[in-house]
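Dear all,

This email documents one entry for the complex benchmark we are building for the journal club exercise. For each entry we list the sequence lines for every component of the assembly. Then comes the predicted three-dimensional structure of the complex as a token string, followed by one or two observations. Please use this as the template for your own entries, and keep the labels exactly as they appear.
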Amino acid sequence: MSTKADSWGSRVGLILAMAGNAVGLGNFLRFPVQAVQNGGGAFIIPYLICFLVMGIPLLFIEWSSGRFGGRTGNHSTPYILDSMVKGRIWKYIGVFGIFTNIAVAAYYCYIESWTMSYVYHTLIGTFDGMSQANVAGFFNSYVDVAHSTTGIPYESVVFYIICLVLNTFILSKGLGGIEKVAKIGMPLLILFGVVLAVRGLTLGTSGASEIFPDANAWDGLNFLWTPQYDSLTSPKVWLAAAGQIFFTLSVGMGTIHCYAAYVRSKDDIALNAVSAGFMNEFVEVVLGSLIVIPIAAGYLGLDWVIQNAGFGMAFQTMPYLFQQWGPSLAIIAGVCWFGLLFFAGITSSLAMGTPWMGFMQDEFGWTKNKGAWSFGALVLVMGLPTVIFYKEGLFDQYDYWAGTVSLVVFAFLETILFSYIFGIKKGWAEINMGADIKIPGFYKYIILIVTPALLGWVLISSIPDWIEKIKDSDTNNKEWFASEFYAENFVDTDKIVDKSIFNELKNQSGKIVEVNNQFVKIEFVNYKKIFDKETEKTKEIIFTDFKEYSFDADKNQIVTVVKGDVVKPNDVIATGDFTNNTLYKFSGRMLLLSLFAFISLIVYFAYKKRVREGRATA
Amino acid sequence: MNTSALITMICAQGIVVSFAVYFFYKVLTIPSKQEPDSYSENDEELVRQHEEK
């Protein structure tokens, strides 16, 4: 069954929507952090090579597969893949292209709702006069569902629902609604990004303070861009570069297929694909590198950045840094920063709704309205647990299994399908059909050999990490319900490079320095990376660190150690009734599995319906 | 900024900006295909690419 298909208003609108789909929070937060952690300026070389030999080919594969499927009235991956080859299994592989989107939207909308909320808090002056610790503390309070920062009960849930309703409403307007948001959102995002990037480029040493006298934005830029050529021979750096390219382009999700499925056969996809891809790279390499790292280094110093670079900087650090610009500029900068993140987020989350809507319209004749609101309901059901149990680690499970693993698995399988089962000859012809540019012939061989090999390497390299995640290796409190609480590891020794520091820290232990019935503070030796200006390289040093545990008297939890005790990881430090995070993490994995099974079942019903109507492929 | 960092930054960003601008310029300037095409807003435009034979 097929109802009248939606269509794009203009080619520029399609490219902006596609670029908006790719441009996400990772462009501003993940890319600079990856660059900092993987050799600064040298990271850009493997990064750009991976873009050319993995990113662009994957864009070609997904755009052309989508357009091919759209020709037979299929607008989502189950039946796009099914239309490409014979074999019943491929439509179930295509389930990834709907599953990933719903699961990622579930937690992505939560981050998006933070950006909305932070724009609001910036405007009402919540962060005025706050210290860095208070700004970080505000975020921790915000994600604690029971706590309200504005007086609105369950504030984080309320903002999440507002954000989801907004997404659903826009989706209910179809491609036209998505295109309008992209046409407004992308230019605004670039404008906001340019304003902040100019500040990052010109901050210099003017942000140095008594607490951070050596703070210098140029140090951040130097560190980010000075090539360290020895890191080019490190497989770890290449793996990180391949991973970053993969995630930044939103490939392996099924959204590109869906958008491209509304393009007619005679219209170009080759130029569209590279244009959207390079637009994403502009936002990432130019704007993404000039905001967070230099601004943070300009106020807090490079060593702080190296030690703390991560996703949390966006919400836990940036509002404090903007306060240093004075009250008026702080509001402008805050609105620019969180507005930029909001537009980066919403253009991506809208794309995540289209595969489900396309599938239900193609197979069951659902209207845009019905498709959009059912998507919203599914995301709400899947997303509320991530909001409520954010601190228990459920959110991270979604991010890992849906936002990371399933992307790699699906991209690898679709590449094999395209190159070896559909066949590179047909595939190459499909890519070039109606093309407005001439694609160099060697790309045919890159798609055939290099792209699958790189993806296979990324996939195989990540398998040991999957096992660690399933085994909950990151905690010593593995039982769901326990009567004893064990001390966690003090240091992640696997990441230590310096052997002498590794030898010093491998037998981890800590000393109890503060204690009462429901609180323990442990002193231990930790390590951190700092930048050595003489050698212009990072080095590891050790320092005294502290770890705190708080327990709940209502659950009969009571500390069993006393001041001066020496404890090691896995030693009992408290007794009582404990519900450990492993329960929530396991529940998260089961929720994701249930979602996959649910979508597979719907695909099965659609298949049965097609059989009844005589439309099923052999 | 030190010289090598400045050169790396300008080269990397220059390459990315050049390609992004070049491809987007092509998108804006290449005439549409003959109707019916994929886009609804250009139905009134007269300048189009010739049909391939």
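Observations: The interface with chain B takes residues 7-15, 41, 44, 48, 218, 221-222, 224-227, 262-264, 266-268, 271-272, 274-275, 278-279, 281-282, 285-286, 289, 434, 436-437 of chain A (CB under 8 Å). The longest strand of chain A covers residues 519-532.
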